[in-house]
Amino acid sequence: xxxxxxxxxxxxxxxxxxxxxxxxxxxxxxxxxxxxxxxxxxxxxxxxxxxxxxxxxxxxxxxxxxxxxxxxxxxxxxxxxxxxxxxxxxxxxxxxxxxxxxxxxxxxxxxxxxxxxxxxxxxxxxxxxxxxxxxxxxxxxxxxxxxxxxxxxxxxxxxxxxxxxxxxxxxxxxxxxxxxxxxxxxxxxxxxxxxxxxxxxxxxxxxxxxxxxxxxxxxxxxxxxxxxxxxxxxxxxxxxxxxxxxxxxxxxxxxxxxxxxxxxxxxxxxxxxxxxxxxxxxxxxxxxxxxxxxxxxxxxxxxxxxxxxxxxxxxxxxxxxxxxxxxxxxxxxxxxxxxxxxxxxxxxxxxxxxxxxxxxxxxxxxxxxxxxxxxxxxxxxxxxxxxxxxxxxxxxxxxxxxxxxxxxxxxxxxxxxxxxxxxxxxxxxxxxxxxxxxxxxxxxxxxxxxxxxx
Length: 454
Fold this sequence. Notes:
Keywords: Cytoplasm, GTP-binding, Hydrolase, Magnesium, Metal-binding, Nucleotide-binding, Potassium, tRNA processing
Subcellular location: Cytoplasm
Strand content: 15-25%
Number of helices: 16
Main location: cytoplasm
Cofactor: K(+)
Protein name: tRNA modification GTPase MnmE
Radius of gyration: 29 Å
């Protein structure tokens, strides 16, 4: 029998709080606490109004519903109590359920049971986690696409095709004296090549998928008084950072998260880059350089320049700091006061140059378009074909490598058993993606990252 679990499945502080129950005693636990109003009894999958009684006291008049197995999220009997959002009421309900023999659900345990009971494969289960934590519409849309099963179906199809290839080779190995039709080596080689190309493309999509799922670090850099803090405030739509005419006002990094046209940016406004003898400002400059290095590896660098003044030595210091970033954009600020001296050289250092006025909030839409294009977030594949976590990316890479070895051994004329060994390794790796051959410790790690109640 499945031990019954219970948890609050909504965020604290809302108008409504939902307590979720799953396990063999879900219905009996619900009936012990909830009584429908009127003569109508609880009906499966029908949300019913009633009274909630704990230790002989009516503590709420909620809605409740139960779901018979196996057509439930977890594959087990389930129930939900839709209470008012009072923390006292919700805690009383959970305590009463625990007194009835249920226990507190662990993080991700509802979805884990759905996986173990065959309601979701592991790839789809991870999509559930992505959907719960999505910070943008694009991230949510990607998670929903993956939850729909298209990618899981594709992986399962690849696996079956590889199993069929192995069967052809094994027939030759196991029955050498039988008159078995010659292996279509050219066709098999092409199959392996096509699969490897698809797996590599999915692996390479991880940077885009990660950007959608986690957001990108974005360092805003520039010399003092170039307009970095004004740009931060303009992007956020409110005054987050202090802005003055005094150079060096920003001495530490100011961090905020922003969803910009579907792209989630983890913004860092940094201290102005310049040579200084001030020990406190030196620390700020050092932290600014650290932020640039971090954003240069996996994020975006926005280098802000004061277009109302000619290019100076401190501006060229900023250019040098940003030159190694794969996604660096030059912001030619104060474009309404632009002086042309020397600014054409920005085009030689940056992927894009965007003139704008942060003070008047002009040109921000052009900056948004540039960032969406530069990061590749603008167009999502309709099949959910972006990889969003490192486990998936590494598994895809490992699978492609095994197929590459198999193809090389096939081309070199190795014995069938050598080719089969590599293909079987690829089959095992594909099974890890969907959970057919995944180790328990990996499953534990995946669901430990879920929130309680999901």
